[in-house]
Amino acid sequence: EGCAPFEVTVSDMTDQVAGLSSVLQSGDGDVVENFTGMTSLTYENAGTYTITLTSTYGNAVASATATVVVS
After folding, report:
1. Would you give the DSSP letter of residue 59?
2. Backbone angles phi, psi at 34, to 5 degrees
3. What's phi and psi for 11, nearest 5 deg?
4. The predicted structure's pLDDT at residue 70
5. Cβ neighbours of residue 10 under 8 Å, at least 6 residues apart?
6. How does pLDDT run across 27-53, given as a tens digit for each residue?
């Protein structure tokens, strides 16, 4: 939770193996395909945003979410 502009750092701590695909959705319309490592997201406007990281490996899918509140 914070005031705009608010910066959030997101990191993918999964082991990077062949065939693993991760997609990061920022909650404000930005999508990072094949996300690995770390990135910063900056929220310029007040609101509630849901960050979603979805990883796929074969038929297995795992997701993690976090909520960011910007005032």
Report:
1. T
2. 50, 45
3. -130, 145
4. 97
5. 24, 38, 39, 40, 41, 51, 53
6. 999 999 988 888 999 999 999 999 999
